[in-house]
Amino acid sequence: MAELGHEVIGIDVDPEKVAALQAARAPFYEPGLPELLERTMATGRLRFTTDMAEAAGSAVHFVCVGTPQKRGEFAADMKYVDSAVDSLLPHVAAGELVIGKSTVPVGTAARLAAKVADKEPGAALAWNPEFLREGHAVEDTLTPDRLVYGVPGGQGTTEGKAAKALLDEVYATPLKRGTPLIVTDYQTAELVKVAANSFLATKISFINAMAELCEKVNADVTQLADAIGHDDRIGRKFLNAGLGFGGGCLPKDIRAFMARAGELGADQTLTFLREVDSINMRRRIRMVDLAREVCDGSLIGKRVAVLGAAFKPLSDDIRDSPALNVAAQIRLQGGDVVLTDPAALDNARKAVPDISYADTVEEAVRGADVVLLLTEWKEYRDLEPATISGLVKEKRILDGRNALDPGRWRAAGWTYRALGRPRA
Ligand code: UGA
């Protein structure tokens, strides 16, 4: 927002995070963010504080807090959204706009709008879902592929028009560049977000179901994806078969969506998402089984090198990470796991302390009975068999992300196995 020319105050309850940000240090790994922080803070348009009172006087107030899965339930935990809104409202004045960005169960915006109306009848609330991807957050924010506004009463009402006008000022730069804009009601805007993530999750699980079948008949899921992806009604994106989806969004969003559908009396509508979820979780089990299979039927005492801990490349996020989950399961089955990752080692160490960690690929693979590629960082995709052939005990590699060229590895004398690709 500061890069787009606005004056911005970032507020968080965590003093450590605020101190880091105030020193222009990003509290997580995100390409391009450190440079952007430094540049925008130098303009004086961006600062950070823990003091909610400093929100007073802002034209718009974005609420961007997380909605993680509740413990032991599918539903989203709304406590952060509610507490952020409750502590913000005393500082909101007439004519100002509270804008929700968090991914929420449909119906939340209407509930929060009532709170706003109760505290400050002259203020309003809009819902403006966020579609950025981790690892591409900066470009996705500065040049979004679409904008969605959920405004009070829809775009036809006076309140709706006033909210739209304020949002148009906020997004003047991307709008000038021609970014598609959909102005709608609260409930549609809320649904757009969870529908998009559910569709993406479904696409991944579809190709992973094909991968399961490919393995049964020795077919190649990567060629299958290329071939169906050429049909532009299908498209090749998000058809990469492998370990499946993780992270702080897709897994919890499909679960929260199912929970909400149930509350709305539409519990049969989204039962297919249960299948999407279980296909996804089966991929992890399949990977562990494959590791055991190539290690002659037992993982006990086997040295297993794991490349990747983050839920995807260009991120240090390990929330619901398929890679870390597989590493932990192999440990439970007696494997001696050594894991490496270019960005997520510190986070992984805290979450799974009972495996070993290495700073480099070379260190991780030394003496390995099997090497598992579980997060497709570029440096792992580009790995040459010759670099590690002399270091491992057994030349066996399992490609959990279909990121390597099987021919190259086999030509170098390796046993190469992948999810959904022919055995040899
Ligand atoms: C996802 C959505 O892509 C964003 O549009 C959305 O804004 C965000 O959630 C959110 O709700 O905040 P993100 O979680 O950053 O973004 O990650 P994705 O790029 O969607 O990847 C999710 C997972 O799917 C990763 O574990 C990735 O490895 C996996 N994946 C992705 C596959 O297994 N195959 C693919 O073909 C693509």
UniProtKB/TrEMBL annotation:
Q: Which UniProt keywords apply?
A: NAD, Oxidoreductase
Catalytic site positions = C249 (nucleophile)
- Catalytic reaction equation(s): UDP-alpha-D-glucose + 2 NAD(+) + H2O = UDP-alpha-D-glucuronate + 2 NADH + 3 H(+)
Look at the named UniProt entry and state the broad enzyme category this protein falls under.
oxidoreductase
Similarity comment: family membership: Belongs to the UDP-glucose/GDP-mannose dehydrogenase family.
**NCBIfam families, from UniProt?**
NDP-sugDHase
Recorded protein name is UDP-glucose 6-dehydrogenase
Question: Which organism encodes this protein?
Answer: Kineococcus aurantiacus
Ranked from the top, the taxonomy reads: Bacteria, Bacillati, Actinomycetota, Actinomycetes, Kineosporiales
